[in-house]
Amino acid sequence: MSLTFVQGDTAPDITAVIHEEDDIASVIDLSPAYVSGVRFQMRRADDRRYQVNAAGEVLDGPAGKVSYSWGPNDLSVPGTYVVQWEVTYQGGRVQTTSPEVTVTVRRQ
Fold first, then answer.
1. Which positions ≥6 away from 78 have C-beta within 8 Å?
2. Cα–Cα distances in Å, from 60 out to 8, 31, 39, 44, 74?
3. Count of domains in the chain?
4. What pLDDT, in 10s, does the model give residues 38-78?
5. How far is 31 from 18, CA to CA, in rounded Å?
6. Is residue 1 over pLDDT 80?
7. CATH number, position 18
8. Residue 99 belongs to what domain range?
9. Measuring CA to CA, how many Å separate 57 from each of 5, 40, 42, 64, 83?
10. Closest Cα partner for 18 from 92, 103, 91, 89?
């Protein structure tokens, strides 16, 4: 999946439904009873360091729906990025989404 944003934009928020890697129909329940947090992570396609590694919001836990509101500088540099979501379960176990989604930030 690929998304395009314009340099400097802060809207719309980026949203996703978290599901099992091998079964798109198998949504992961992100209810507070199971999950203690979710993070949005974005890095340049040619770099391993995250440009953004920030708390996301669970919009609908049982449906696995999450969202991230862009910060003022998150989309300031044009380029190709990959994004993923990191889910932390109660008890500290961590699961990262796959495959990563490609985000293109085009010049204004």
1. 7, 105, 106, 107
2. 28, 8, 15, 28, 24
3. 1
4. 999 999 989 999 999 999 999 999 999 999 999 999 999 99
5. 12
6. no
7. 2.60.40.10
8. 2-106
9. 20, 9, 15, 11, 15
10. 89
